[in-house]
Structures are given as structure tokens and as C-alpha cells.
Specification:
The complex is a heterodimer of chains A (599) and B (315). Chain A has 599 residues and is an all-alpha fold. Chain A contains 25 helices and two strands. Helix content of chain A is 78%, strand content 1%. Chain A is globular, with a radius of gyration of 26 Å. The mean pLDDT of chain A is 81. Chain B is elongated. Classes of the chains: A mainly alpha (599), B alpha/beta (315).
């Protein structure tokens, strides 16, 4: 009886899970999230059905259209899970430590496994509820044919196993005390870099068969959710390799390469178990140790206790708010080191790229694509750091209760916000410089080697030395302002950071869809429109032939370049205008928002 | 003497979970220049709300609060240089040393250059923190953090200090150090409004006290006046050699006595509030041939005054 009771308490009757299921289900915020998610899926379904069914002439056309619809909503579903699973699970990293209920839980007769699984399932509950709410939308695609039930099951399995792995990773970080508030952000950044970098690596480097000019799945497909999904929903354009090419491989490698979707689900599930089982074993043993976490331990070794003893005071600027943002964030801390590591790694990557290109290992087209991938990753990191840092700027002061101390000084809201912005920009400038340095190095290479030898083609047009930093700086200022705005609105850092990253990702995604569509379909105006979408602008600046071929066709290249340059300056001015408007609005509403939060 | 702090019908209503909570109800308070005013009340009585309104952090729902004749909310910018606010919890910036912390706030008060260094040195010396100038703020003990808080509010030499439970959670030594420091500030002529739960220390430090309960000021005046007010309806401890129950019944029937309780061989006799002379009790008992062995007035201090004047009701 007691063994059965213990087993039931692992999952279905787990008190932690029951509490979340009974109380969480009543929360309006979660209901809104589910409605929003379902609304988005229905919106994508309607748009896809309307555009494809108007061209459908036969049942097979309808089946084809249904397959495309399934593909679209599967990507949206996985994208939403990748965006929302970290939001729901990342809080585990700090909440378990910060919340006083954690110690109370440890003092109850609940076993380690019951606590760990309760935490994991209670966080996954929202994600699973979200996934299930989208099931009817998928069922509609079955009616039209062209989609098999097994494809739908595989699509759901990929999304579910992704959420399971994300949750397990968050729980393991919390249990092994590897995390703090900052870890939540890096958790997000790592997810984003992993997804973007592996996708670009697979598509631009590995999956293209140079002999046949066709794409196929690679060893990366089985460890990347979007690539695994692509192998399911688009198996004709992204097929598994021919069996004959795997003749020498053992059974596991053959299975791994021939069934990437199954392999992905299996690998992530096993990896989740690998993370959860040790967590369940050592939970109380680690909790009984001192409060010092791994990073604190590491920092203490590096600093040899200097930090605890203190150091000589630095000079505080006349604007103390700006000084606080710029100087203390860039001191000897994770972020201080991260700035310089990012610059060094970015510069080194650009040099490696140029070396490969110089030796002839990379063709011009490939060099451009790799350069674009590099700049996109560097820009994404800067954008995320800017958003995270600014989103935490006010909330952290609120949490550390220093905001009240500043509000009773003669500092005005204008002075405070301007100080925040100035300090953030000072802190962010080295990050923003990384993609610019990369572009400058490539242009310098062109000037020294390619053009000196009597002509040839630019890898990157020289006007990008001006256009790129102008655009990126204005975009980073916009990201900082967005983060600051949400930091003022929300009272908790984690919520402000997640909301800022979510809003930023959403805006970039929507602008990206519009920008890429416009650039590839409308000859000149499309390029002008693309300049207003951050990622499309970067892509068109570096790889114009790939993303705006019609605007840069032979004969019209000069017009395209001038249009792009002017449009980028206009877009930068527009972003600066938005920053200014947001700044004015923040100054105007600062007192009212802060006062309302005090009520 | 001019008035430093004044509240007129100060009312504050919070919205908690859709329900209105009356934190302050027509609070009228006057604190003169150089007063050290102890603000006493149970948790949730409205002390912190009053201090936050005076510190320009909150807007009153109704009524008016004035600091040095400037109205909070309308002339907050003029008020801020005049006040120093110490909240009930220490606000620490991470990765800052003590000197940077003070210089940071000095810059916020527009104190710059050599003057800033000089002032920071002065307040560090005044608060005995000079030897900790290079220590990380978050590594300081709670007592030192409170001293640093006081150092922070002295940077711009404010006329009025608003201290919200500055001794809360401190060990006895740290409490005494803070009290001595506050006495120094009182000598310097600062007007101090201090809320605290440690009443003997307030009695030692303050010349005036205000007792607040459920957002209403139920007493304001000198410490002596508070004790006097609480002494009305005083309690006497009376013992007789034998027939304790009979003696109690006799006193219960005597005019001027509100009640008699027996506990552990003692009678606790509560007099009516209009009775100031208690000599009739001894006369009555001796006259009825009781052997009186003890007759003692219950000692009334700020603590007992607080207990008698408040009902212990919170919002």
C-alpha cells in the first residue's frame, strides 16, 4: 500500500503537481497564453488554407495544400514551445532557491524523486496544456489528406521532448546549484545560439551535396528540433541520405542517420532522464551543503577572496545612474569577461573565415553565407545582452530596494532614465562593435588582396562599413529602450527579461517574415522595406543575391545598392525616432508608473 | 519654534486584491524643529505608510503632508534635498564598495569634485566606518549596513531625518551604537521621525512620541505625557496575610475601584480613571482588620503606556 502510494506520488498524485494543476488552471494569465497560442495556430491555419485552397484544383492539390498547412503550423508549434518552454521552466533555476517554500518541501517526508518530478511536471504541465490545446487544429489537416497521423504524432513528440529536455535542464541547474538570476538569461541565450548556429551550419555547410546540388539530412538533424521536424514535414526536399552511402556504418549510426526524428525524440528523452535521475538522487545531499554555488566557488578561486575583502573605490561619474550601469556591470563579473570574450571570439572567427577564403577553401558565395551567419549570431548575442541588461535595469533596483533610495534624492525621472540609457549604451558598445569589426576586416581584406590584384568582386560592399554600425547601434538602442520600458512595467526581473526577449523575438520574427517576403518578391521597393527588418537587412547587406536577387540583378546592382544604403539610413533614423519617442514617454510616465506600483 | 513635519487629515487607501484597505485615517501630526519624534504602533498600523508619504514615495489619497512647509506631491523636488530617508530594509547595490556607495548617492545630490570626497570622509568618520571604506557593501554586517544607511542620509546635511525601524533585526551592540549615533544627530539639531518597536530605546532617545493604531493617531505628545495618560486607571498590586478572597470582595464593593483580579496570591486592583489618590485602599483594608503585607503601584513606562493605550488591533 505504501509502495503504491509512493509510486502514485511520483506523478499523478504528486502534491507539488496537484497544487499547480488545481491553482494554475484558474489563473487568467495562463488561460490568455493558451488562447493566444491557439489563436495564433488558427490564424496560421486560416491564412495557409486561404492562400493554398484558392489554387487547389483537385483532391491531390488539396492534399498538397493540407501538407503545407501542417508544415506551417508544426513549425509555429515548435517555435512557440522553444520560446515558451524556457519561460515556464527557467524560473525553476532561481525560484526553487529563492523561494522559502523550497526548504519547507525538503523538510517534508516527500522523497527526492517526488520533489524533483513534482517540480519538473508542474512546470511542464503548462507546456503540455499548451500543446494539447493545439491538437484540434492539427486534426483539421487530417481531413484534407496529405498528412498522416504518424506525422502528427511525430510533430507533437518532437515538441514534447524538446519541452521535456528544457525542463530537465532547468531542474538539474537548480538542483546542482549551478545557477543564479543571471543563469536564466544565459539559459535563454544558449538555447537561441544553439538553435540558430546549428541550423545555419547544417543548411549552409553540411546538408548540401555538392555533387548533386540537393539537400539531405545530416548528423546534426537528430540533435536539432527544427531540423528533425523538417525531416518529417518536408521529407522530399530534406530527405535522409541514401542507404548505399551508409554501407560501412554500424546499426546505431544507420538508425541515427536514417530516422532523425525518432533519434531526436529518443536522444532528448534519454538526455532528460540522465539529467533528472542524478538530480533526484542527490537533491537533499546538495541542499545540506553550504549555500555556496559552483560559480561562487569558481569566482572565489579566481578572485582569491579579493572580492569579499574589498577593493579600492572607483571614481563615480557626475551622473551616478549612468556610472552604475556602465561601470559596475562591466567590472570583474561574468558580464565583464563576456564582453571581451565576445569581441575576441568574434574577431577570431572573422579571421578564420578570411583565412579559409584566402586559401580557396571557401567559394565567394559560401564565404558570404558564413559571414552572414557569423554576423547574425554576433548581432543576436548583442541584442539579447542589450535586452537582458536593460530589462533588469529597473527591476533589479526594485528587488534590491535601492530604487526608493534614489527616488527620494533630487534625481528627476529624465535624469534617471537618461542615465540608465547612457550607461547601457556605454556598456553595450563593445558588443555592438563585434559585427562591425567583422565587416571591417572583410572589407579591408577586399581592399588589400582582391581589388589590388586588378578588380574582382567585393565579398561585402564597402558602404556596409557605414551602414552596418549605424543600423546595429540604432537597433541596440531600440532593444535597450524596449527592455527599459518593460523593466519599468514589471516588478520582477525574470518576468521583465522573459517578456522583453519574447516581445523582441516576436517583433523580429514578424518583421523578418515581411522583410524576406518583400525583398525576394518586389525588386527595388522590397529592398527598401527589407532594411526596416533587422535580420533581413543584415542578410540583404551581406548576401544580396540570395535574398533580393531581382533588385541586384546585373545592370540594376547600383540602383539596388543606393536604395539599400539610403533605406538603411532611413531605417536607422526611424529606430532612433522610436527610441526618442519611447524615452519621452518613459520620462512622462515614470512617476505615475512607479507610484502605481507602490499603491 | 517652526514646524518641520505636519500632516493634516492625512488619509491613505490601498487597493489590495480589489478591496480597499484604509492604511491612514485622517492622521494629524505636528513635529517641530529639532524634535526627536518616536512613532509607535503595531505592525500594519500605518507607520511606514506615513514615513513613505513624507519621503515623497507615496501620494496620499486625501489630506496633506508638509515638510518644512513644502507640500508633499506638489513641491516634492524642494522637499527631497531637505530629507534623509532610511527605509526598513537596507538597499544594497552589488559590486560596490562603501566609498563608492556613498559617492554614488553624493553625486545623486549633485555633490561633486573635491567637496564630495571631503563630505564622504566626514560622514565615514562620523559613523565610524572610515576603516571599512574599501569593503564591499554586501559583505558588511547588518549593524554596519544600518550605520552606512545613516551615513548616506547625512551626505547632503538634511534638516529632517525619516527613519523607518532603523534598529530592526540588530544585535544589542549594534542597537546601542545606532542609538548613540542618533543622539549625536539629535544634538546636531536634526528633526528626527523614527519608528521602532524597541520602546525603551525610543523613550531614552525621543522627546516626543506618537502612538498610531489602525491608521489613527491615538496619542501624540511628550513621553511623560504618554506615561501620565496611561497611568490614569492605574493598577495596584495588593497582598494580605490571610482571607484573600474576602479582601478582594471588600475592594470590589468599594467606590473608585474598577475591578479586582486575583493571581498567584496577589490582588491586581484597577482604579477608576478619575481616581488619582490611592491611599484609601490601605485605609479600607486596615479598617476591616486585614493584615496588609504589600501595596505597590504598577510601574508605568512607555511600554506599558503603549499596551494600555492600544488595543492590538491591526488592519
Amino acid at each position: 500500500m505504501s509502495a503504491a502510494n509512493s509510486m502514485l506520488k511520483l506523478a499523478p498524485l504528486n502534491p507539488i503537481l496537484l497544487r499547480v494543476v488545481t491553482s494554475g488552471g484558474r489563473r487568467l494569465r495562463h488561460a490568455f497564453t493558451r488562447w493566444g497560442y491557439l489563436g495564433l495556430l488558427i490564424f496560421v491555419l486560416m491564412i495557409a488554407l486561404m492562400t493554398s485552397s484558392s489554387q487547389a484544383k483537385s483532391l491531390s492539390d488539396l492534399a498538397k495544400a493540407s501538407s503545407q498547412v501542417f508544415s506551417a503550423i508544426s513549425y509555429v508549434q515548435l517555435g512557440m514551445i522553444c520560446l515558451l518552454a524556457p519561460v515556464f521552466c527557467a524560473a525553476a533555476i532561481t525560484q526553487e532557491r529563492d523561494s522559502r517554500t523550497y526548504n519547507i518541501l525538503l523538510a517534508t517526508p516527500l522523497t527526492n524523486a517526488q520533489i524533483v518530478l513534482g517540480s519538473l511536471f508542474s512546470r511542464l504541465y503548462y507546456v503540455v496544456a499548451l500543446l494539447l490545446s493545439g491538437a484540434p487544429v492539427f486534426a483539421i489537416t487530417l481531413l484534407y489528406g496529405g498528412v498522416t497521423a504518424s506525422n502528427i504524432v511525430l510533430s507533437f513528440s518532437i515538441a514534447l521532448s524538446t519541452a521535456l529536455f528544457t525542463g530537465s535542464l532547468a531542474i538539474a541547474i537548480a538542483v546542482f546549484r549551478l545557477g543564479s538570476g543571471k543563469t536564466v538569461f544565459w539559459f535563454y541565450v544558449f538555447n537561441a545560439i544553439y538553435l540558430v548556429a546549428l541550423y545555419l551550419l547544417d543548411h549552409f555547410w553540411l546538408s548540401l551535396d555538392p555533387a548533386t546540388g540537393t539537400y539531405h539530412t545530416t548528423w546534426l538533424t537528430s540533435i536539432h528540433p527544427f531540423l528533425a521536424l523538417q525531416s518529417v514535414v518536408n521529407s522530399t526536399a530534406y530527405p535522409t541520405p541514401d542507404l548505399s552511402t551508409l554501407a560501412g556504418a554500424n546499426a546505431f549510426v544507420r538508425w541515427y542517420l536514417l530516422h532523425p526524428a525518432y533519434a531526436y525524440v529518443t536522444i532528448t528523452t534519454v538526455a532528460s532522464l540522465v539529467l533528472v535521475v542524478p538530480s533526484a538522487i542527490v537533491l537533499r545531499r546538495i541542499a545540506q551543503r553550504s549555500e555556496v554555488g559552483f560559480w561562487s566557488f569558481f569566482r572565489n578561486i579566481v578572485m582569491r577572496g579579493k572580492e569579499a575583502r574589498g577593493r579600492r573605490a572607483r571614481t563615480v561619474w557626475a551622473n551616478p545612474v549612468a556610472w552604475r550601469e556602465a561601470a559596475t556591470r562591466a567590472g570583474f563579473s561574468g558580464r565583464g569577461i563576456a564582453r571581451w570574450v565576445t569581441i575576441l571570439v568574434g574577431t577570431a572567427a572573422a579571421i578564420v573565415l578570411l583565412v579559409f577564403y584566402h586559401r580557396g577553401d571557401l567559394a565567394m558565395v559560401d564565404a558570404r553565407r558564413v559571414l552572414m551567419a557569423l554576423v547574425i549570431v554576433e548581432f543576436s548575442v548583442s541584442l539579447l545582452v542589450a535586452t537582458n541588461t536593460s530589462a533588469a535595469a529597473v527591476t533589479k533596483e526594485r528587488e534590491s530596494q535601492t530604487l526608493d533610495l534614489l527616488l527620494v534624492t533630487p534625481i528627476t525621472s529624465r535624469y534617471y532614465i537618461w542615465g540608465k540609457l547612457r550607461g547601457l549604451v556605454s556598456f553595450m558598445l563593445p558588443f555592438a562593435a563585434v559585427p562591425t569589426i567583422t565587416i571591417v576586416l572583410v572589407v579591408l581584406y577586399d581592399l588589400i588582396f582582391t581589388l589590388r590584384s586588378g578588380g574582382g568582386e567585393w565579398v561585402v560592399w564597402p558602404e556596409n562599413i557605414v551602414a552596418m554600425p549605424v543600423l546595429l547601434t540604432s537597433l541596440l538602442a531600440w532593444a535597450c529602450m524596449l527592455g527599459l520600458q518593460l523593466s519599468l512595467k514589471w516588478s520582477r526581473t525574470i518576468v521583465a527579461v522573459m517578456a522583453s526577449v519574447g516581445v523582441l523575438a516576436g517583433i523580429c520574427a514578424v518583421l523578418g517574415v515581411c522583410g524576406f517576403t518583400a525583398a525576394s518578391n518586389i525588386p527595388v521597393i522590397g529592398v527598401a522595406i527589407a532594411a526596416f527588418s533587422p535580420y533581413t537587412a543584415i542578410a540583404v547587406m551581406i548576401c544580396p543575391a540570395d535574398y533580393a536577387a531581382s533588385a541586384f540583378a546585373p545592370g540594376s546592382e547600383l540602383t539596388g545598392r543606393i536604395t539599400l544604403f539610403v533605406a538603411i539610413l532611413a531605417a536607422s533614423a526611424a529606430y532612433c525616432g522610436i527610441v526618442w519617442a519611447m524615452y519621452k514617454s518613459m520620462v512622462r510616465n515614470f512617476d505615475m508608473i512607479i507610484r502605481r506600483q507602490h499603491q | 519654534m517652526s514646524v518641520s513635519i505636519q500632516t493634516i487629515n492625512l488619509t491613505k487607501r490601498y487597493n489590495v486584491g480589489g478591496k480597499a484597505l484604509l492604511a491612514l485615517n485622517n492622521l494629524n501630526l505636528t513635529i517641530e524643529d529639532g524634535d526627536c519624534f518616536g512613532f509607535i504602533g503595531p505592525n500594519g498600523a500605518g507607520k511606514s505608510t506615513t514615513i513613505k508619504i513624507l519621503a515623497t514615495l507615496l501620494q496620499p489619497t486625501w489630506g496633506e503632508a508638509r515638510i518644512c512647509n513644502y507640500v508633499v506631491g506638489y513641491e516634492s523636488r524642494k522637499i527631497r534635498p531637505l530629507i534623509g530617508y532610511v527605509p526598513d530594509s537596507f538597499g544594497a547595490y552589488e559590486d560596490m564598495v562603501v566609498q563608492e556607495y556613498l559617492e554614488f548617492f553624493a553625486a545623486a545630490y549633485d555633490i561633486n569634485g573635491a567637496k564630495r570626497k571631503q563630505i564622504v570622509d566626514d560622514v565615514l568618520n562620523l559613523t565610524d566606518l572610515a576603516y571599512k571604506r574599501d569593503a564591499m557593501v554586501d559583505s558588511l554586517s547588518k549593524g554596519m549596513q544600518q550605520r552606512l544607511s545613516l551615513a548616506r542620509v547625512l551626505l547632503h546635511d538634511p534638516r529632517v531625518l525619516l527613519l523607518d525601524e532603523p534598529a530592526s533585526g540588530l544585535d544589542p551592540r549594534a542597537r546601542i551604537e545606532i542609538r548613540e549615533l542618533l543622539k549625536e544627530l539629535k544634538k546636531m539639531g536634526k528633526t528626527i521621525l523614527i519608528s521602532s518597536h524597541i520602546l525603551p530605546e525610543l523613550a531614552d532617545l525621543c522627546n516626543k512620541v506618537g502612538i498610531i493604531e489602525r491608521g489613527e493617531l491615538i496619542f501624540a505628545g511628550t513621553v511623560e505625557a504618554a506615561v501620565r495618560k496611561a497611568s490614569l486607571g492605574q493598577v495596584l498590586h495588593v497582598a494580605v496575610a490571610e482571607r484573600l478572597a474576602d479582601a478582594a470582595n471588600l475592594l470590589r464593593a468599594t467606590p473608585g475601584i474598577a475591578g479586582v483580579a486575583i493571581d498567584d496570591g496577589l490582588m491586581h486592583v484597577t482604579l477608576n480613571t478619575d481616581v488619582t489618590d490611592n491611599s484609601f485602599i490601605a485605609q479600607k483594608l486596615i479598617g476591616e482588620n486585614f493584615r496588609l503585607t504589600l501595596l505597590r503601584e504598577e510601574e508605568v513606562n512607555l511600554e506599558t503606556a503603549f499596551m494600555r493605550l492600544t488595543k492590538g488591533i491591526v488592519q
